[in-house]
Design brief:
alpha/beta; Glutaredoxin; Serine Threonine Protein Phosphatase 5, Tetratricopeptide repeat; 2 domains; 5-stranded mixed beta sheet; 13 helices; 5 strands; about 10% strand; elongated
């Protein structure tokens, strides 16, 4: 095997941590091979070369099917070599046979894996402004108008909820909290619960490390639950909802006791913010499968 931190042997013992969990943050290219397989020996140098060339944008996990029979069986391997790309704990792509380098590069390009650029949970193009605020909205003017309406009609709690959400999104957390605490008839409405969930996530990041530091922690230890959770919060507030839900689900799966079941609680709060009903339904089912 070529000596590289981007290449490792997959075993039944390290599969969960080094493949399933690690692929939440860095794609894992699995090479299913055997010592007696001639085409495997042809393909292997190509995969190793690309793993080194791409500099950590993906990791190459080598699976000796004669030694790691349970791993091979889990993927239903019937032909060697077989190459499987894992992303977010799931199979994202694959091919069989000793394909030319061009084919491997096409797979990596298809999955948006760029040479020399290790992908991160929070994409380089993540919005710096709140994705839930329309670009053409004058937020300050909108806040001023809502405050004027509320001053004239203090009993309009729907207005108070709308104002509280905007205040959270521009960083005025204390003022938003006061509005939410003053609710009476709408205190338990869906709108109020949504804003409280948003406020809770924002407050969790008040003293959090920056995303790059958190990603480095997870790279060193894919079971760092605090880092996984905080990355999920960053992702959610950046509008990358599915990735955020994946992070919270991973925390829940790894340790229900962490943060008093923080993974499950975060999923429930995130469901209040995610507008894609199909996505929410999918992750509700996944969450339920871990409960029973």
């Amino acid at each position: 095997m070529a000596q590289s931190p981007h290449i490792f042997d997959v075993t039944e013992q390290n599969f969960e941590q080094e493949v399933l969990l690690a692929s939440q943050h860095t794609p894992i290219l699995l090479d299913f091979w055997a010592a007696w397989c001639g085409p495997c020996r042809q393909l292997m140098p190509t995969l190793e070369k690309l793993a080194i060339e791409f500099g950590g944008a993906f990791r190459l996990g080598k699976v000796d099917t004669d030694q790691q029979t349970q791993v091979a069986a889990a993927f239903g391997i019937r032909s060697l070599p077989t190459v499987v790309l894992m992303k977010n704990g799931q199979v994202a792509d694959h091919f069989m046979g000793a394909q030319p380098e061009r084919t491997v590069r096409e797979l990596l390009a298809r999955q948006q894996i760029l040479a020399g650029v290790a992908p991160t949970p929070i994409a380089a193009g993540a919005p710096t402004e709140d994705p839930m605020i329309e670009a053409d909205v004058d937020v300050d003017a909108k806040i001023a108008a809502l405050k004027a309406t509320l001053a004239e009609s203090p009993d309009k709690e729907e207005t108070a909820i709308e104002l509280a959400e905007l205040l959270v999104r521009v960083g005025e957390k204390d003022e938003a909290t006061q509005l939410l605490d003053g609710l009476k008839t709408q205190a338990e409405s869906d709108g109020a619960r949504r804003v409280r969930a948003l406020l809770g996530f924002v407050r969790q990041l008040e003293h959090a490390p920056d995303p790059d530091s958190l990603q480095q922690r997870v790279a060193r230890n894919p079971a760092d639950l605090e880092a996984l959770h905080l990355l999920g919060v960053f992702l959610l507030l950046a509008g990358q909802e599915q990735s955020a839900l994946d992070h919270f689900l991973t925390v829940m799966r790894l340790d229900r006791k962490f943060g008093e079941d923080l993974g499950r609680k975060s999923l429930i709060d995130a469901f209040r913010l995610v507008t894609d009903a199909d996505l929410v339904g999918d992750y509700r089912r996944r969450m339920s499968s871990l409960l029973f």
